User: Fold this.
Amino acid sequence: MAVKRQTLKEFQPGRGYTKEDWDAVDSPPLTDEELARMRPAREVMPSEFFEAIEEMRRARGRPRVDAPKVAVTLRLDPDVLAKFKASGKDWRTKMAEELRKAAGL
Assistant:
């Protein structure tokens, strides 16, 4: 989903550019004639460009896992949870290992 950003009308410091950068940019509003002449990007750009963009989108993020974990809500006794948390940073992994043993997996 695209996020519509507010267009600034005057320079505001602390946004990653200087007053000189702001003053160097000349972007007047488009005229009705210029807007009428505009065409969709897919009509004027080579199709290879859009294929490359789609390939990049598919490659982003974490790699797919064969057996992804499932999020569940589980109510535990406080002393049981405290015992696993006291075992260290990877307490969730240790808890999963114990559940696998108990299930005979």
The first helix runs from residue 19 to 24. The mean pLDDT is 88.
